[in-house]
Amino acid sequence: YTASFPGIPSTRNQQRLTYPRDIASRNNVPVVIVAHGNGQDYRWYDYIHDLFASHGWVVMSHQNDTVPGIQTASETQLRHTDYFFGNLATIAGGVLNGRIDKSQTVWIGHSRGGEGVARAIDKLFDGTYVAVNYSLSDIVLGSSIAPTDFLLTAQSNPHDTYYHLIAGSADGDVNGGPTTPIVQY
Fold this sequence. Notes:
Layout lengths: L14 E4 L10 E7 L10 H9 L3 E5 L7 H17 L13 E11 L1 H15 L12 E7 L17 E4 L19
Parallel strand pairs: 2-3, 2-4, 4-5, 5-6
Antiparallel strand pairs: 1-3
Helix pairs in contact: 2-3
């Protein structure tokens, strides 16, 4: 479906949704929001969708604006989350309305989307992004899969939010080390 929210580019406004088959009988359902990396696609995360939905979670992945960089990746993460929580009455015919517990939201991102998750948490923390339909306290976990860190700054700081890092041994599109300008982990 198409997300229409201020700041979401029309070229990056698609979301994909998976939820438990018995959603109508569930309450307080936790949410996972997935952000892809550069050169990837929001429709490539069926394994994450299926895994979490089979355990009773709602999963949404979205088009991520990664090409310009980490700042835009974090902005699309923030704004797609805002759209999602603000439109539960209409998304999927309203099947999620009254069923979601947004205070149990997990953000997962890969590569630039992974650093975008940490950067998005930082933006909520320092107030450079003010969410309309959720708050920093609703994000119970940020999880980055092989994230990039191109700026080597504190802007990708998840602060006191629980943070999970998966560092793959064979994610070959980005490399470097602690003293080089392109660092993967």
